[in-house]
Amino acid sequence: MAKYMVLWEVDINRLSIDPKERIGWYNQAHDMVEDDLKNGTVDWGEFPGSHKGYSIWEGVNEEELELRMLRYIPYVKMEVHPVLSISQMKKAVKDLAQK
Predict the structure, then answer these.
(1) How many domains is the chain partitioned into structurally?
(2) In this structure, what are the phi and psi dihedrals at residue 24, rounded to the nearest 5 degrees?
(3) What's the mean pLDDT in 17-24?
């Protein structure tokens, strides 16, 4: 099963300077995150005070993940990394040894 780590960063230059509008955007973004937690995100976190964080996705393919990520653009920049488990790494090393 595919697994992805997404590093994200809010582009604060795109957010309103009006506190009420900014809070409205954060509430909307938090609602999307809660929806993602029901649809493929297995972990999500923010690094305190940085407007950056991560999410871990499982059970989605690249197209599904892209569709979910597009909802956050242009307010959030994302960097997606496929992740291998220890069993996948052990298999790769075993396969390499047999060549």
Answers:
(1) 1
(2) -60, -40
(3) 96
The residue assigned the tokens 């992740």 is 83
**In which band, very low, low, confident or very high, does the pLDDT at 68 lie, cut at 50, 70 and 90?**
very high
User: Quick one: residue 49, left, alpha or beta (phi over 0 = left, psi -120 to 50 = alpha)?
Assistant: left
What is the rounded distance in angstroms from the CA atom of residue 82 to the CA atom of residue 22? 32
pTM of the predicted model as reported, rounded to 2 decimal places: 0.87
C-alpha–C-alpha distance, residues 37 and 43, integer Å: 7
Nearest to 5 by CA among 90, 94, 78, 98: 78
Question: How high is the mean pLDDT of the chain?
Answer: 95
Structural domain of 56? 3-97
79: domain CATH number is 3.30.70.1060
